[in-house]
Amino acid sequence: MQVRRDVNRSNSLSRNERVERIERCEMMDVLVLSPVEELLERTEGDEGLDGLAITEPTDFVAPSLGLVDKGTRFISALPQMITPTSLAQSYLCRPYRSDVQRLRAIFTWVSERITWEEDFEGQIDTRRVLQSKRGCGEEIAALVRDLCSAVGLHAEVVRGYLKGPGERLDLETIARPNHFWNAVIIDGEWRIMDCSLANPTNPKRSLYSSANNTVADHWFFLTRPMEICYTHIPLLPEQQHIVPPVPHEVLISLPCACPPYFRYHIELTNYDTSVAYLENLEMAHLQLTVPEDVEIVAEVEARAFARDMDGDLFESGDVTRKIALAQPTWIAGRKSYMVKALLPGDEGEGVLKVYAGKRGLMHSIKDNPHALALAVPLMHTGQNPPYAFLTRHPTPHAQRHDLYVAQPQCSRLVINNTFVFCVRQHPSSLSRFSPDTWGGSNNASARSNSALGLRSTSPAPYARPSSAMSMASSSAGASHTGSLYSETSSALSDKQSKPAKLAIQSPTGKIIRFTRKQEYGGSAAGSGSRGGGSGVGDEEEGFGSTWETVIKVGERGVYRGLVLADRSARWCVFAEWECV
Is there a single domain that holds both residue 32 and residue 63? Predict the structure, then answer.
């Protein structure tokens, strides 16, 4: 029974189960929102100078700003009694003609030259800040405002609440502001600047940013209001500079998204707040849509408990971490990551942290090179028996295929039981070059692929080959797509259209090959996924194949999932289970 329980515990949520969780939360008077959808559906966009929405936001990050940073860092020997006006006019902004360059000079100098310190009660004096080179959040925001007005730029100080990653919030909490930042007008658009959080001396910065700890984090320079609202909640709705302003309940419910979330164009799909409330054997499920050259790693953090002499529990001050299961799959022609997580033990509360970065950088599960992209608080009530997910290893030498272990997703196999090992496989890239060969020389073909619709996000039948394994068996797909399909299929290299050779290695070294059970295109997707499937219900999956093998585990030790390397005849380990 425990074996079956563990195998089935990681099953992806069906639509009915999602509805049941929502209804249970509503019965417990927990507000259930889909905050990401609400934000996108309620709003028209960032606010312009005329109060209307900006249809096409400007990208202000240009190469020339690097020279502004360089020049600004040389400004050090200043007169003793300098004022914000003379600093801005005679030193910081004097060499620059454009408003963007002037703002950048102000942002970089304030973020890197003023040492951040804790807030205090008292009169704000920006001249004292310049003399002592120290300031709290409110003083730094006031200094930025004065420097901007000295060169004819409009900036306002915004008072509000800065969310901590994974912090559980309510309306009472955000009514007590804990942070100050600036809203500025540039080229007719409202943008946000946070010199306090960009400051390397701010101890909170490391929670959000992985930037070099000697320079400012430039993501907080002219950030779009629609993006920074995931972490910054202004006290006054009109200072959101979103059209129309978003209710505080929605902003509270948004997960804490850090710069990599926007830098890598990640999208949180099918998310609602009931995901975070778990009961008994339940798990948290997230679906993240990502570009094809991005990978995701996830873990759960919780505060550890210890028992005293009387047997009472207390927080020991330590943090326990548990790896969450993050696996790539393709849905409707787009790459997604399915993240499944649960708390390490009986802590009751924890934080699911999702890290993102360029694919292929991770070489070992012990070394996570990626930065925090997203944090979601989790709550658990009831029983939580010990459970471990299978170990998914990065495969830097086998990058042509994305593998999704549908089952078993639990780490522990019990001897003399029969298990179905099921893996779903997709080509990892829509272009004809596998990720390990991307580069400048391939730009022309990338452009031709986009012209063919290969990078299209629509679930067009020609967006992917009907099988990731064999182009020969794609006649069904070719029949209704005509010559365009033959063009796109030829765009995939011969190497990528070859079968991904998959196998299981038993503890004694015996190799057991997988057999291909099913190829699927858009419509046949649902039937191929088994219990541990991607949890997309009736939605279309990408094109690919399902591979299975049935094994009666009769040996104790480690069973390994193997995939053949891209460029050599050697196996790479992509998954591990332990038989006890």
Answer: no
Is the pLDDT score of 318 beyond 60?
yes
Q: Is residue 275 part of a domain?
A: yes
Q: Which of 272, 235, 270 is nearest to 30 (CA)?
A: 272
Considering the entire predicted model, what is its pTM? 0.84
458 in any annotated domain: yes
Report how far residue 379's alpha carbon sits from residue 348's, in angstroms, rounded to the nearest whole number.
6
Judge if 114 and 217 occupy the same domain.
yes
Same domain as 289, residue 231: no
CA distance 181 to 192: 8
Digit-coded pLDDT (tens) for 185-230:
999 999 999 999 999 999 999 999 888 888 999 999 999 999 999 9
Same domain, 327 and 225: no
pLDDT band at 529 (very low <50, low <70, confident <90, very high): very low
DSSP tag of 432: S
Question: Is residue 447's pLDDT more than 50?
Answer: no
The range of the structural domain enclosing residue 151 comes to 45-245
Residue at 63: amino acid letter: P
Residues 300 and 350 in one domain: yes
How far is CA 509 from each of CA 30, 392, 568, rounded to the nearest angstrom?
A: 51, 19, 20
> Would you tell me how many other CB atoms lie within 10 Å of the CB of residue 415?
12
- Please state whether beta strands 349-358 and 294-307 pair in parallel, antiparallel, or not at all (unpaired): antiparallel
CB 177 within 8 A of CB 160: yes
Residue 172 DSSP SS3: helix
Question: Do residues 60 and 191 share a domain?
Answer: yes
Taking the alpha carbons at both ends of the chain, their separation in whole angstroms is 15
How far is 337 from 342, CA to CA, in rounded Å?
A: 17
Q: 575 pairs with which residues across the strands?
A: 392, 561
The answer to whether residues 118 and 234 belong to one domain is yes
What is the distance between the alpha carbons of residues 278 and 20, in angstroms, rounded to a whole number? 12
513 occurs within a structural domain: no
Mean pLDDT of the chain: 83
Domain boundary among 326, 359, 385: 385
Helix axes 482-491, 443-452, angle to 10 degrees: 160
Environment class of 170 (CB within 10 Å of its CB; exposed 0-12, middle 13-18, buried 19+): exposed
Count H helices and E strands in the chain, helices first: 19, 28
Sign of CA dihedral 123, 129, 134, 137: positive
